[in-house]
Structure formats: C-alpha cells, structure tokens
Amino acid sequence: MAVTAPIIQKCVNYVYQNFALIRALMGPNGDPSFEPRAKKIVTVAIEQALVHLKGNADMTPKLPAAFAKELIVSQIFDILKIWLAEPTPQQPDELADIIQVTRYLSPFDILNLQ
User: Fold this and answer.
1) What's the longest Cα–Cα distance across the chain?
2) What are the DSSP calls for 13-26, one per residue?
C-alpha cells in the first residue's frame, strides 16, 4: 500500500476530531452551505500541498483543471460522507489509507473489471 499523503491524513484527522459536528453539518438535516465551503478549503489545501511537493498546482493536461479538481475533492468528500454515516466508523488511519488507495484505482479496478 502507498504511503498516505500528509494532506489526506490531516483532513481525516480534522474530521475525526470534530466528528459529531461535521456529521451534523453534512447530514440530511445539516447546513447545505457547509460542504461547498469545506470543499473550497480542501481544494486550496490540496493545491498548496501540490506546490510544496512539485513546485506547482497543475493537474493532468488530459482534463480541464476544474474537472480534475472536482473529481479529486468530490471523491474524498464522498468517502468522508460514507464514514460519517457509519454506525461504527473505521479509525482515522484506516480511512486515510482507504482514501489514499482510491487515488490509485481506476473505476475499472474498483469494479474488478479486467
């Protein structure tokens, strides 16, 4: 398994430390403005991590930048929402590893299609 990126670990730990509050904010009766605001914060954090890692925040030229950013951030949030909804959620390190692994899997891999 790949080493979990520090930015992923940091995001998961933040959610874990504020689990009940974020569960309420992102739940069915939560604040509909919370997720878009949180996504913007995570997007900026990812961009900053990329600049630190490789000197720029450029994403693949195979997709328009807005699509690439949305795919990355939305997938992370989708996994977080599953975690928040579980009656017995995984430990933060385990969830961070799950998120990291999904960064390397294509939809074909996830569906176990060859």
Assistant:
1) 41
2) HHHHHTHHHHHHHH
CA distance 31 to 26: 7
Sign (positive or negative) of CA dihedral 94, 33, 60, 54: negative
SS3 45: helix
- Residue 50: what are its φ and ψ, rounded to 5°? -65, -45
Rounded (5°) CA angle 60-26-34: 70
pTM here?
Answer: 0.90
Per residue of the chain (114 residues), give pLDDT as tens: 567 888 899 999 999 999 999 999 999 999 999 999 999 999 999 999 999 989 999 999 999 999 999 999 999 999 999 999 999 999 999 999 999 999 999 999 999 997
Contacts of 10 (CB under 8 A, 6+ apart): 45
* Burial annotation 17-43 (CB, 10 A radius, 16+ → b, else e): eeeeebbebbeeeeeeeebeebbeebe
